[in-house]
Amino acid sequence: MTSINEPKTAVADALAGLSYLNPDTKVVNRTTLIVKDPKPSRVHVLCGGGGGHEPAHAAFVGDGMLSAAVSGQVFASPNAAQVEDALRRLDLAGQSRGTLIVVKNYTGDVLQFGLANERWAATHLVEGGGKPDDDDPHQVRLVVVGDDVSVPRSQGALTGRRGLAGTVLVYKLAGALAAQTHVPEHSLPEVEHVARVVAESCGTMGMGLEHCHVPGTETSEAYLAQDEAEIGMGIHNEPGIRKVSPIPSAAKLVDEFLSTITSTTDSERSYLPFKHDGQDEVILLVNNLGGLAEIELSIVAKEAAKWLKQKRITVRRAVAGSFMTSLNLPGFSLTLLLLPRERVVIPETSTSSSILYVDKELMLDLFDAPTDAPAWKWTFKGDPEMTVDEEEDKKKAAKASSEQSSGVKGPKPSDPKQFLRALESALKSVIAAEPEITKYDTIAGDGDAGLTLKAGAQGILDAIGENKIPDDDVVAAMVACSEVVEREMGGTSGGLYAIGLSGLSKGLVEAAREKDSKVATAEVWARGLELALNTLYRYTRARPPSRTLVDPLASFILTFSSDPSNLTHAIKAAQEAAETTRDLDAKAGRAAYVDQEKIRDAAVPDAGAWGVWKLLEGMQKAL
């Protein structure tokens, strides 16, 4: 971590920053974030634990969720005195209706918050002796959450399951009910009971690609190899249940996690009473453990949705984001909250006039309830649904292709088989060069050039295999290639290639008319390429020498146009132009924003220029 002042003040500084971002809160004792004006005559929810799990715990402080969070140093529990101070502030001199403490099942948290709970009970006895009853305003209850299903029963027989991201769902639902306790019929026992039902109905499992780095400690050697992942890794750098290599796909990881969470046959890990009869309903939480990209998190959500649908488990609500992290750990966890099928009555006598039933509708209402907590993500207030209308997309593409192909017919290749052979060879050459191109782009660009070119090349190869690239009309072939490139590549290079191919298709028509030829001769190709370059110049300011793909492309086209009978000479010119980009300052493209001295020192060619050269090199091999 680099964006800290001092490791010992990191948590306190972060809490101060949270208070600045949410002025309805304040920091006390440098360890506790609390709402500025705790409301009287209602129940409050207090949580806490070590730092390093942000946004948990303090960023969930806000109306409709938590009233306060007590933080320790990174991965270290706060002490009991800090917790007691928070209890005192929420007690409001007896004007509140009690406080519920929610903590993750880790030894330090349970001991320190438990000690604070016992001390509070001992110092707030009712007159005549005994502990406070349900109506006593000083009352405090404690709920410990353990939702990790990767821990076998035999291994956790004494300590129980670890508390993971399911804890945040306890915060949300219990906090939402606590916000309603200004209504006389709601009380602390009811809030506690909802919290227990949620905690006991949650299952979580996760994975990591590496240990996180704790501020103030030396950077250690990599715990995992680049092709390794650890299943069941804890949120304090605890080892998981096993390492796997190579890293499984998102679909395989999701399958393992959800299979374990929903299992009813694993004597060691079957914790939740799923029925698997098509009537199970859940809330899904996809959690970023700290270092996962948003695009990866959405992929995990998609795979989880598919898996649950296939297993006939209905997802009533879904949310994804960073909820319970492990600093910068690259990984994710999945949590399922199994909704109850029957109404559950609070198992203890309440003096209120009504009885609270805990059922799935109440839990969904509490999940949907509004909150001011800054870390709670937006969620759709209804059953989630994934709509990917691929059939409609295919129909539109087919229609567009049909409209294009019904236009002016272009010249035929002089040798149709050789035409496709040369095209395939060029595409395969780019695919083989992907690691090399990616390496160059990582040094002097944004690192995506190789994969982008590979995606376009593979897309055209697939289209050739499906007979979607005609070999009897070079114009129709270029139009079809342009459509594939536009669809598969995207980005700057995708746009340039698509425009270039579209310009080439138009240029070939004009060139064939100029030459009065029905065959795509070398002269027709040369003139068509020249017109295509002019088209490309309308949409990019890059001109050679600019350290872009335009350098070898222009060299090839202009050399070929000057002597269409000498293709080898033109390809050689393109190679030399691509090599020359090693010594050029970038005048266009993303490399123009990079330190030019760094690029010159690296002595690498422009990735886009190298891609053009590899295309031409592959074509030359076939010709």
TrEMBL record:
Pathway: Polyol metabolism; glycerol fermentation; glycerone phosphate from glycerol (oxidative route): step 2/2. SMART domains: Dak2 (SM01120). It comes from the Eukaryota. The active site is at H236. InterPro entries: DhaK_ATP (IPR012734), DhaK_dom (IPR004006), DhaL_dom (IPR004007), DhaL_dom_sf (IPR036117), Dihydroxyacetone_Kinase (IPR050861). Substrate binds at G50, G51, G52, H53, K104, D109. One of its GO terms (cellular component) is cytosol. Keywords: ATP-binding, Glycerol metabolism, Kinase, Nucleotide-binding, Transferase. Belongs to the dihydroxyacetone kinase (DAK) family. Its EC number is 2.7.1.29. It catalyses: dihydroxyacetone + ATP = dihydroxyacetone phosphate + ADP + H(+); D-glyceraldehyde + ATP = D-glyceraldehyde 3-phosphate + ADP + H(+). Residues 387-416 are annotated as: Disordered. It is an enzyme of class 2 (transferase). Catalyzes both the phosphorylation of dihydroxyacetone and of glyceraldehyde. This is Putative Glycerone kinase. Residues 417-621 form the DhaL domain. It comes from Rhodotorula taiwanensis. GO terms for molecular function: ATP binding; glycerone kinase activity; triokinase activity. One of its GO terms (biological process) is anaerobic glycerol catabolic process.
